[in-house]
Amino acid sequence: MDRALFGxxxxxxxxxxxxxxxAKLTLVVIVMIAIFASxxxxxxxxxxAFILAFFAISQIPLLQAARSIGPLFFIxxxxxxxxxxxxxxxxxxxxxxxxxxxxxxxxxxxxxxIRLTLLLLDASLLTLTTTTLDLTDAIEAVLMxxxxxxxxAHEFSMVMGIALRFVPQFVGEFRTIRAAQLSRGAKxxxxxxxxxxxxxxxxxxxxxxxxxxxxxxxxxAMDARCYHGAAGRTxxxxxxxHARDAIGSAVCVALLACVVVVNVLF
Length: 266
Prior knowledge:
Blueprint: H1 21-37, H2 41-57, H3 62-69, H4 73-86, E1 92-96, E2 99-102, H5 103-129, H6 132-143, H7 153-183, H8 192-195, H9 197-224, H10 243-265
Antiparallel strand pairs: 1-2
């Protein structure tokens, strides 16, 4: 667990870490809108420059940022391959049976790969700079207006926070279980087709058993602390907005404006 994973907090004393969690959650959505609104490589370059600047300000090494999105990078690869082979147009570079690689397919694969990578980095910046408790409180605060329509804002945010907290823990337990099976002489491979279903089950069964055990322990702990939902619940460290949140909002609005200008010019 010495590596940053998606959903794991990376503690440093940076201005972004000290920002209000509600502001960071809102600004992450604004940056996502800017990435989706980017219609050219130049606009994506502007988004990439801002995101890299955010990581520099937050004092998070780029290697840790790359490791944080590593478990989800298969989404980028699958999306790139689908666009590479199924988007057709322009000059055809390769033809092999039912698979055709054209100019439009290459452009779409590269463009969407960059866009998805920036989206993952944007989301990971939120989890790397925000503790699980603060993120849970921020989600609850954002969803609280919808509680009038029957949405259980507190329960939903708590489930999201618990899920984010247990992602790195389960990855660590998977590594421990795999190392234990290898030490017992198990022949495991990175591919389930090579290792066989029996080898996969030797990893998945203990992992699911551990997940159910953690769920039972967590429910017992919540019951022992007389947890009964959001009714009458107070906070030891309530969220509060500061001047740095306004500065962060101005920077993200500037990013959105720059993307619009670049889209018009290019």
